[in-house]
Amino acid sequence: MELVEYPDAEMMMMDLANILASELKNCLLVHDHASFAVPGGTTPGPIFDSLCGVDLDWSRVHVMLTDERWVPETSERSNTRLLKERLLVDRAAEAVYVPLYAEAETPEEKLPELSEALTPELPISVMLLGMGADMHTASIFPGADQLEHALHGSDRLVAMRAPGAPEPRITLSANVLKSAMSRHLVIVGAEKRAALEKARHLSPDEAPVAAILNGTTVHWAER
Ligand SMILES: O=C(O)[C@H](O)[C@@H](O)[C@H](O)[C@H](O)COP(=O)(O)O
């Protein structure tokens, strides 16, 4: 794991947007398309705001979430909504969106079709992840009902419920996250930094983020 510390979060978000954009551009030099996976939650919005205006061939970028909360797009908690409002706008409106949500009561009902649609996107070219203070990443939560499956199974996509998550989740498995060609994790604040340090000494079963730290660049700013 490589840790990059920034003087402030605003600078970090702009730098990260540039890093991600140049990785996508490099990927497009040698491949037909680049797959780009990003988290939801409260942290990545400013990165999306910078990235969406970048001049690159967005029509060849396939954008997906690392995980989704099983709520309709009209919900404030929908990561799909965040993506559509903050990333898939401006120049990035040309990007191809690969959904991780479809209308249904439970994620299990849509798992086969959503998983199938991921086939041409793997391995992920460029990936950004977030992390919770409880050491979850994507929606691989400590104590989740499908934790073992998400960490050690061969499925690409896993539906799960966890004490720390108010609604059912769907998440890329650790297997898929680890196979991404380029991996970045973005965290803000002292609490998450302490959680990261703790996770480095724990097993993924206790600290799911530990599963992806090897080979990942972590970007951190205190505030
Ligand atoms: O849907 C989600 O919640 C995310 O994709 C999740 O993995 C997120 O990255 C972390 O929970 C951090 O969330 P914050 O950025 O809101 O702290």
Automatic annotation (TrEMBL):
The keyword Hydrolase applies. Its EC number is 3.1.1.31. It holds the Pfam family Glucosamine_iso. Residues 7-220 form the Glucosamine/galactosamine-6-phosphate isomerase domain. Pathway: Carbohydrate degradation; pentose phosphate pathway; D-ribulose 5-phosphate from D-glucose 6-phosphate (oxidative stage): step 2/3. GO terms for biological process: carbohydrate metabolic process; pentose-phosphate shunt. It is an enzyme of class 3 (hydrolase). One of its GO terms (molecular function) is 6-phosphogluconolactonase activity. The keyword Hydrolase applies. It catalyses: 6-phospho-D-glucono-1,5-lactone + H2O = 6-phospho-D-gluconate + H(+). Hydrolysis of 6-phosphogluconolactone to 6-phosphogluconate. Belongs to the glucosamine/galactosamine-6-phosphate isomerase family. 6-phosphogluconolactonase subfamily. This is 6-phosphogluconolactonase. It comes from Yoonia litorea. The lineage of its organism: Bacteria, Pseudomonadati, Pseudomonadota, Alphaproteobacteria, Rhodobacterales.
